[in-house]
Write a structure and sequence with these properties.
It is globular, with a radius of gyration of 20 Å. The protein has 15 helices and 18 strands. The protein has two domains: 254 residues, Alkaline Phosphatase, subunit A, CATH 3.40.720.10; 101 residues, Gyrase A, domain 2 (2-Layer Sandwich), CATH 3.30.1360. The strands form five sheets. The chain has a seven-stranded mixed sheet with strand order 2-18-9-1-8-6-7, with helices on both faces. It has a four-stranded antiparallel sheet with strand order 12-13-15-14. A three-stranded antiparallel sheet has the order 3-4-5, with no helix packed on it. It is an alpha/beta fold. The mean pLDDT is 97. Helix 4 crosses helix 8, helix 9 packs parallel to helix 11 and helix 10 runs antiparallel to helix 11.
Length: 377
């Protein structure tokens, strides 16, 4: 089976923040996206806003559709944890190491990176597993702050003290918000200083895609609200500023080809731990069992997934141009990326996740491509 081809002519999400900071004149950052010099910059990340979805529903988001200039690819896995880390570190998942919604840490177990607990449904790890240990790279926000840039992270107040925030968004001033109105207001306030950088985040479009499906009426109504959010910021951008609207991934609706991994004994033989999520699985094997597990998963899943050994996935650049030594064990001995609209669910172990309509993580354009929409003050 041919493996997915990564189009390196399309810029990666990890290039966005370094390019904005280069435009602000922060040393050591490269302006690979060709942005002009500015005094103020903001990246607004709309969780779950895929390029294909925006194209299909352009009438619901006229402002965003007019602004969008080019697609970005988000890399593998196409998921929130990896996408936020790409913005927060300026590198791909093979270097920042936030390798999925869940991933295995040697000596710890499978970490749910959103809830910072053992997965599924295990002990809270915030005290014994410092976020800086899991993601030790300095963040783009901390590096901007060190250069004297007034730096802000504007996101939901409920995320202010989470381990994931500390892992990938630490640095700068955290501004907790509660709704679209104060998200817009706080973003504009963050851009008032003479030299400022702001990261702002909106999560609800992704939530409605998971619950009702991407492109559903509820999703489209929320997209319209997001468009008004963007319009309200664009209309009030201060002079000499740039706003970059991006996303962390797109989304697909699962179909009848979906597999319940927990109900297929052949897929459990020789498997020590399963991580990842429904569209991007890390399969960790018992000692010596990798060839058997690889063969069984390939035979059982057939054309419903790309199934490769860890070294092959790394060699083909799935996790970016470089994979750090401490990140390699977080990648499964076998990696399974769903094709088409297949889901690799675990209905017994992950009942909540398995009940969702929309999913993401793999290599389809609907998941991989997100918009880069630019506005200048």
């Amino acid at each position: 089976m041919d493996l997915p081809v990564i189009d390196h002519d399309v810029a990666h999400l990890s290039q966005v923040t370094p390019s904005l900071l280069a435009a602000l004149g922060v040393p050591e950052f490269a302006g690979s996206l060709g942005l002009p010099e500015v005094s103020r910059a903001c990246v607004l990340l709309i969780d779950g806003l895929g390029w294909d979805l925006l194209d299909a529903h352009a009438s619901d988001a006229p402002v965003l559709s007019e602004l969008r200039s080019r697609p970005l690819r988000v890399g593998y896995p196409a998921t929130t944890v990896a996408g936020l880390a790409a913005i927060g570190t300026g590198v791909a998942s093979g270097e920042h190491g936030m390798a999925g919604y869940t991933f295995e840490l040697p000596g710890v177990g499978v970490l749910n990176a959103l809830r910072w607990c053992l997965h599924p449904g295990g002990a809270d790890l915030r005290e014994e597993l410092p976020a800086e240990r899991v993601q030790p790279l300095p963040t783009t926000f901390a590096r901007a702050e060190a250069d004297g840039v007034d730096t802000s992270v504007v996101s939901s107040a409920m995320y202010a003290d989470t381990a994931l925030t500390r892992a990938v968004l630490r640095g700068g001033r955290y501004v907790g918000v509660h709704a679209l109105g104060d998200l817009a207001a706080a973003t504009l306030d963050a851009l008032r200083p003479a030299r400022a950088f702001c990261y702002a985040y909106h999560s609800e479009l992704d939530m409605l895609g998971h619950l009702h499906g991407p492109g559903s009426q509820a999703w489209r109504m929320q997209l319209g609200q997001v468009d008004r959010l963007v319009e309200s910021i664009v209309d009030r951008l201060p002079p000499d500023s740039v706003l970059a609207v991006v996303a962390d991934h797109g989304m697909v609706r699962l179909d009848e080809t979906t597999v319940d991994l927990d109900a297929v004994p052949e897929l459990a033989d020789g498997v020590r731990a399963l991580a990842g999520e429904a569209r991007a699985r890390h399969v960790h094997t018992e000692d010596g069992a990798t060839p058997h597990v690889l063969a069984a998963w390939r035979e059982t899943l057939g054309d419903r997934a790309w199934v490769v050994a860890r070294d092959e996935a790394i060699e083909h650049g799935w996790f970016g141009p470089r994979v750090a030594d401490h990140v390699r064990p977080r990648i499964g001995d076998v990696v399974a990326a769903a094709r088409g609209n297949t889901g690799l669910l675990r209905r017994t172990a992950e009942p909540m996740e398995s009940g969702l309509v929309g999913h993401h993580g793999s290599f389809t354009s609907a998941e991989q491509l997100v918009p880069l929409a630019l506005a200048f003050g």
